[in-house]
Amino acid sequence: MPMVHVELLNARRVHDANGKFVGRIGAIIAHRRGHDYFVEEYHLGPAAWLEQLGISTARIIGWRHGYEPLKVPWQQLDLSDPHQPKLRCTLEELKKMQ
Asked: Which of 32, 48, 88, 97 is 20–30 Å from 61 (CA)?
């Protein structure tokens, strides 16, 4: 698998397999194994940006249950063109996975 620099993915628009806009990459969740880092999932949408800051959407607007970022498993994001990442499935199929 080719190496992709994180800075190329930050805030990129993501579309699903049908070309529908899904959201922007707001967070990349990775874990270290030895000397390497492996991406586990990508978080999309405004809630992902707030999540990075440690702020829940619920607390901002006073709701008990806030919106969660859309979580995309690493294998469901096609990064063959890092400037135009796209889901390997439709948004509806991704929601069923969660």
From this structure: 97
Mean pLDDT, residues 53-75 taken together: 71
Tell me which CATH code domain 6-97 carries: 2.30.30.240
CA angle 26, 24, 10 (to 5 degrees): 55
pLDDT band at 22 (very low <50, low <70, confident <90, very high): very high
In degrees rounded to 5, what are phi and psi of residue 87? Answer: -70, 150
Question: Under DSSP, is residue 19 helix (H, G, I), strand (E, B) or coil?
Answer: coil
Q: What pLDDT, on a 0 to 100 scale, did the predictor assign at position 46?
A: 81
82, 1 Cβ separation under 8 angstroms: no
- Please, which residues bridge with residue 38 across strands? 31
Q: How many CB atoms lie within 10 A of CB 79?
A: 18
**Closest among 33, 38, 49 to 4, alpha carbons compared:** 38
